[in-house]
Amino acid sequence: MSSTDVLIVGAGPTGLTLGIDLARRGVTAQVVERENGLFPGSRGKGLQPRTMEIFDDLGVYDAIRAAGGTYPVGMIWRDGERAGEHRMFDPVGTDEDSPYTEPCMIPQWRTQRILLERLEELGGKVAFGRKVTGLTQDEEGVTAHLASGDAVRARYAVAADGGRSAVRRAVGIAMTGEQVDPGPMLVADVRITGLDRDNWHLFPPRDGVDGDGAGGDILAICPLAGTEDFQLITRFAHGTEVDLSLDGIRRVVAARSHLAPEDVTEVRWASDFRPRAALADRFRVGRVFLAGDAAHVHSPAGGQGLNTSVQDAHNLGWKLGAVLREGAGASLLDTYEEERRPIAAQMLSLSTGVHRGEIRRGAATRQLGLGYPESSLTHETRTAPGPLRAGGRAPDATVDGVRLFDAFRGPHWTLLALGMPAPDIDVPVRTVRGPAHDSYGTGLFLVRPDGYVGWAGDTAAAGLPEYLTRFGPRRPPA
């Protein structure tokens, strides 16, 4: 039986992000994936600005940006003629505190490849073709049983194995949700001729339905940045059997656009699904945690699922590292569900609203306004807080010549002393000193490793030492 500190089940964006975060903290983690390789499709192609900030922290931003691109303007077609443009997102102004304001388009398979390369740079790896068939736990750890007959013993396990999570079922956690749309949807990566790559091509429904049931809903064909592929997505009437073959997809394209069947030259990946919104009743049982789609299943509209999943991993990673390597109390892990489950519920509501046309893509879908003001890890001690309160996302800024996102990058805590002296702290905290700043105001701000303000005060005497003793970093054991 092999052993590890953390067993991560699933090598999607969630599992790979968590693996990277743990590797840079010196935590031994084993990532197992039931498939023989990475997910091959473009499905989660939109990375929101908050996720780009996390990828900056993890050291993959440059690679993601180089491989991706911006979202193209929607082009509406009617009867083979261009009939107008559609802006997918409400505009958001740029400012210093949010350097990444627009979503990045990059196929999910490419995002995962970049994450895997980063994991391997840090000494981690993924064991492919390793299917978990059962899991038991006790007071000391978790034992996962594999289809090969092997077993893995870990101090903690994380289910990052998707919406049909075998680990979630093994520990008996139910999901509560609703069907967002009764009709099945088709998503496919195709090679296609006859369309430019400068626009997201939108074909509104024609009158009537053709004989094979292909008509009756919008067809969207989007060029995938950095590739020769297009992502095709459309919806069918309830009860339709979706044909994923080349001929089947050609029929749909011909029925719903001015394109000829032979304009679709290749299907590189295809899947059908029924949009659903569901939330796990719990995010933790004992030493087993749920993250990503194993914990929450979204409609793809609005691009919230993958992004919320990456943020789950970023939240859990530093807490596991603190417990396993820095001597923090195990109760710190209780805050994972406390913080992430309400956020997931909020994002599920947002995704469903976008899917149903009730909410426009805009500031909310960028996820920069999310935070943990009600968390037990959040301590706001000022009687008159400035523009930023404890629990909020720590914005970017330049303070006395130091870019804050550069100072935050890495697996450490950061203390900002703005407009006041910095106290001496006998724990490994990076300190940045400077004048008051418009985005922060004046005060002391203790920024967690995941980029949120844990404690804020006018003076260290207002509880900073006590906070650090309970939640903050500690020197690793000798």
TrEMBL record:
Gene3D superfamilies: 3.30.70.2450, 3.40.30.120, FAD/NAD(P)-binding domain (3.50.50.60). Residues 376-395 are annotated as: Disordered. Its cofactor is FAD. Residues 4-349 form the FAD-binding domain. It holds the Pfam family Rng_hyd_C. The keyword Flavoprotein applies. Keywords: FAD, Flavoprotein, Monooxygenase, Oxidoreductase. GO terms for molecular function: monooxygenase activity. The keyword RNA-binding does not apply. NCBIfam families: PRK06184.1. This is FAD-dependent monooxygenase. It comes from Streptomyces incanus.
